[in-house]
Amino acid sequence: MRMRDLEKASGVGRETIRYYIREGLLPEPDRASRNSASYGPAHVSRLKAIKRLQEERFLPLSVIRTLLEAEDADRWLMPDAFPMLDALLAQRLETAGPARVLPAELDIAPDELAEHMRDAQVVADADGRISQRDAAILKTMGDLAAIGFSRDLGFDGAQMRLYSVLIDWLTTQEVHQFLSHTAGQVGEDKALDMAERGVSLINELLGHLRTRALLRKLAERRRVANDNR
Fold first, then answer.
1. Band of the pLDDT at 33, cuts 50, 70, 90?
2. Of 56, 82, 85, 91, whose CB is crowded by the most CB atoms within 10 A?
């Protein structure tokens, strides 16, 4: 297709398309000559993905590029490497008890529960039930609200979206790193054991790193205040 067809199919203007090509967010088109370029379905799908990431998740182009590059790098691994890893890991990581619960069973006030479900983008199934993981997220949000992390103080949907964006970016990098270094190097049983044990250990590591960073930021704030006196 020509440029005008790509604009129509993607809803993105030609100057933006050319900018994305220069920045490496889009592949170069096929060129029969210097003034003739042909674009394909891959350009349309990539443009729609960029547009969605910008409009729905408010991601900057630098982060979008990283996500798209990781997606491209992972694609060759997905069909064949560790075909049972995702299902087996999900079984091991799920908490004991019923697979899905009713939100009303949680010890959270109904009005707060509705807000937390919206902020955490939790969607119930046809029977009105949610996963144990989502229930744990909602409970933690309720605990935070109980100690003062209220919507009035800014702990709201925007904060949750920030966390979601950061977690999505981080886990994309982690999956790429794990698969690209273990596929073809270890068996699926070993990969499953590494993934299961690694989740809790890396969660612990991230907690330590985050706490250290927070304390450093607060100490830096105090140093700046003292220097300005």
1. confident
2. 82
120: which residues sit within 8 A by CB, 6+ positions away?
134, 137, 138, 141, 160
Residue where the block lists tokens 């273990």: 182
Query: Residue 206: which domain range?
Result: 59-93+158-229
Which residues does 94 contact at the CB level (< 8 Å), separation at least 6? 132, 133
At 127, give phi and psi (nearest 5°). -90, 5
Q: 219 and 167 in one domain?
A: yes
The two tokens of residue 184 are 């073809």
Measuring CA to CA, which residue among 82, 116, 106, 103 is closest to residue 195? 82
**Measured on CA atoms in the order 214, 219, 220, 226, is the torsion positive or negative?**
positive
How many alpha carbons lie under 13 Å from residue 158 in its C-beta half-sphere?
A: 6
